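The following block was generated as part of the benchmark described in Methods. Ligand: zinc ion.
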Amino acid sequence: MLDYLVRNACLTGENTLVDLAVADRKIVEIAQSIAGDAPSFDAAGQLISCGFVESHIHLDKACILDRAKNETGTLQGAISAVANAKSGFTEDDIYARGARVIEKAITEGTNAVRTHVEIDPGIGLAGFNAIKRLKADYAWAMDIEICVFPQEGLFNYPGTEELLRAALDNGADLLGGCPYMDTDPHGQILRLFEMARDYDVDLDFHLDFDLDASWRHLDEVAKQSIAFGWQGRVMIGHVTKLSVLPKPELEDTIAIMRDAGIGLTVLPATDLFLTGRDHDHSVPCGVAPAHKLAAHGVCCTIATNNVLNPFTPYGDCSLSRMANLYANVSQLATEAELENCFAMVSDAPAKLLGRSNKIAVGEAASFIVLPAQSRAQVVSEISLPIWGMKDGRVTFEHPAAKLFRP
Ligand SMILES: [Zn+2]
């Protein structure tokens, strides 16, 4: 007995259209013209793909432009605006704003996210508890991985470590860091590695947020990744300093990251918005060249980071738009380059979150249909998904625009 059929889908790498049969939450057959009268969706020759995976998003501080303004447009302006607004956050308020973002992301074809949640004595575990509720309530459409981190510093904010440990004891999936906010950045990096070892969890750092190549924390993270044997379990986000490195220095850095098994997440919307505010012309973009690192085998992802807040006053939660934004800023245009951008919002973050991204018999029936014939086209045209399913259940429909001709 089949539960569902997707008809006439275009599968990457296949020349002919296929039907996919779904039963017991899994793909049970992929073939041309599968017989059956189960409920169905006609993909009409359009691309079927695993859902997008959002590897870095802040649900707890999303959608707060009504109460937090970044007066200077700088990183410092964003940090202080959010820190002030945070004193008014409640669990229900965080839940409601997070739900708004998750629902938008679902309709944009995302079915898994890693969300960074701020933990400190000011907010306590309110953000963590709200995100845990969201994780349970939206499991039908979205898998949520919770990364707790000390946005306002660890050593300079006593009580933060105890709360991070409480969150890890109560279901947080991994640990984040923000060494540039700490009075003792190397101390924070070391302590987070020790805690990661205690809890056997991965690490995901907000690393640097400036264009000064004369100093950085990347080397310390690489050193500790090797010392702790945490290769393949550490991501660094932003790393805007990478955007100013000349080729030889960039190649040296890529080798350091590859040897230490460190991956990179670029957050183009935020990096473009905050970087270079001290320039009144020839504003640098601050977007790390992830495609160059990916070409050397470094795990690289593109992600949304913030939605409608002082760090990024935009946001539609669309990862096809984010991949396009990255491609545009990085001046990428060939079929292969655009396909790689698609991979940075699908294959690479899926692997990072320990998910399969295969469409094959026996895999979970979790996929989306995109109005395109190739992955490159999704990026060049910012194709928005028209339909999606998770674990055998239809989760959204977003019909394509229709013309009413005279
Ligand atoms: Zn972030």
